[in-house]
Amino acid sequence: MKTWHWWTIGVGGVSVATSVALTTDLAPHVEYVPEKVVVLEDTVPAAPSAYGIPLSGFELERSSVKNGNTFGDLLAEHGVSAATVDSLVRIAEPMFDVHRMRAGHPIAFIFKDDGTHTPQWFVYEASPVEHIVFSLSPLNVHVHERPVVVHERAVACTVTGALWNDLSSCGADPALAMQLAEVFAWTVDFYRIQKGEQFTIVYNESTVDGQRYGDPEVLGVRYTTADRATEAILFSMDSTETYFDRDGNSLRKAFLKAPLKYSRLSSGFTQRRFHPVQKRFKPHLGTDYAAPYGTPILTVGDGTIETTGYTAGNGNFVKVRHNGTYTTQYLHMRKILVRKGQNVQQGDVIGEVGSTGLATGPHVCFRFWKNGVQVDHRKEELPKAEPVAEEDRARFYDVRDAIVAKIDDAQRKAERRDPVQF
Asked: Which of 108, 150, 195, 351 would bridge with 123, disulfide CB 3.0–4.6 Å?
């Protein structure tokens, strides 16, 4: 009986062990790994093309319009008949006048690659974007446009000398210097910019085939000096885009800060200055801005031309009456471009920089009257334009906060690596 008991236990144990072995996975643990999907790339290069024309079976020959070239001459050189030229001119008329072709502009002929050198297309590049494509078989003309790609960029640039050169050194489009002069035309005197000051700019830059195209558009900028920061935010209100400070006040004022877009201040308003021609001390009740001959002179505000003329001291001059309080005058012009009684608007060109009268070099002497008394316009508190409307405030703050965040980010990067662009 005892023997049977242990035999029974033994059989039971074997049975349990067998059951465990049969129902339990004793193999090493292996996790399922999905099979990788292999994507086969098309390694056959795309067929070459130019101006929207596939070039397979064709040859492309580029050159440029030379002085004296005409549309007919260029095509006749490649055996195109006068009748065909005349037909193309007439077909092109709604889109392009062939007489507007200019020397230096790129052109291209596309020939059949069959040994005959027969032209199939002629292309004139009117601009980096717009190309006029003349099909010779069949006769047809159309405008091909390269895509313009807009990139948003930010740059922080410290002034070391000429702003144009500093922006270029930062990797930014140096044309931003002119844009900034316009943005801050009412609030920053660009003739007083000092070394060590900083411009941090968020802007749109357009490119065509990777090359800069057109002027950049400043979306927001911060100009930082030793004691203050001046900001400008581009904002659209009533379908008009203009610049406002961070509080929504317009940067526009009744008068520009200077009558030239970009030059240098050569002599300020003072009661005692040594006159370079008369060789004696006398008051200089104006501000001189030096610039090359022919530089456009702008009226600093809306008004009416009160006087134009010439005197031995002033040379050619223009005087503008803006209202009952303010009058401005512009001296030493090479050329006067307005007439007495003409109405002008802020920024209109009224003359060209010269050195007529008592002047040693090309400049404009700018004079500013307030209530009949000549004053230093750079020290005047001038009236401002309208601020952001109350109903547009919330939208303005959203735009401002997004731009300011990008300006802040660019400045932080500049603290570690100056100059910086991203």
From this structure: 108
